[in-house]
Design goal:
Layout: E1 2-6, H1 10-22, E2 26-30, H2 33-41, E3 48-52, H3 60-70, E4 77-82, H4 87-95, E5 100-103, H5 108-139, H6 150-167, E6 172-178, H7 181-188, H8 190-207, E7 213-216, E8 221-226, H9 232-246, E9 250-252, E10 255-257, E11 261-267, H10 274-290, E12 296-298
Parallel strand pairs: 1-2, 1-3, 3-4, 4-5, 11-12
Antiparallel strand pairs: 6-8, 6-11, 7-8, 9-10
The structure holds magnesium ion (MG).
Magnesium ion (MG) is lined by residues 8-9, 52, 54-55.
Amino acid sequence: MKILVAEDDLTTRSVLKAVLTKWGYDVEAVEDGAEAWACLLREDAPKLAILDWMMPGMDGVEICRGLRAKDDPLPPYIILLTGRGKREDIVEGLHSGANDYILKPFDNEELRARLLVGGRMVELQDKLYQAVEQQKKLALTDSLTGIPNRRAILEHLETELARASRKGSSLWAAVLDVDHFKQVNDRYGHLVGDAVLKECAERIGRSIRRYDSIGRYGGEEFLLVFPRSDGDLEIQALERIREIISEEDFVAAGQRIRITVSLGAVRWNGADTIDEIIRRADDALYLAKKKGRNRIEYFE
Ligand SMILES: [Mg+2]
């Protein structure tokens, strides 16, 4: 485990570096508060730190306050090291945001034990953070296709709308529906139906530009968002999506299945709300279905 040692006294710094290295830590030793602060702000900053209280530049307590003010979800575990052992000093040190406090001259075994506690806290904090991030991700992902789910793609559309509004630009949104999907399910079973939806998402995902998005809107319905609108380019992109589904049969459970999709697309007029955009795209989709499917209709 990486550990930062910030201590302006050469002897103490050298002793700390020697014992920590002996205990297996990867030690980064600095001699003033400014260096320590810069080190702790780095992307790959050590998650354990021993900070001297009194140092030139920035003192240990200032560093603790600065770090707590940053509100980092994965803050380092900080042990303040100092000769100031009065009760009010200890209280101030801990109030500043330090996790622990060790008096000089320190006892090696006590320091080691406290570092082990710190290491456990860092690991626990990391596990919790990963678990929360994983949950957040799952809450926004469609479990079948692995693409954003309805909630996520709608949030994305909302973000893009706000951006377009700020920049005075436009965007396209399209609702895509797999034609006669119920027949696929009825004839080949739901597992094949699922495989078809998965492959649809994959084919479309491969064909859109990096900054375009697709999400699963409902059963066999997908929502596409094209920010950075270039007018005709989006029409070509939508045409390509329709083709990439229809031009090659789907193969699932040994069956070759021809799949087509219909799309209803709308270019944002600068005023519509999300609900209105979706309704207009739905109206266009309805028209595409009515006109024979495997086609795109645009809301005028
Ligand atoms: Mg000092």
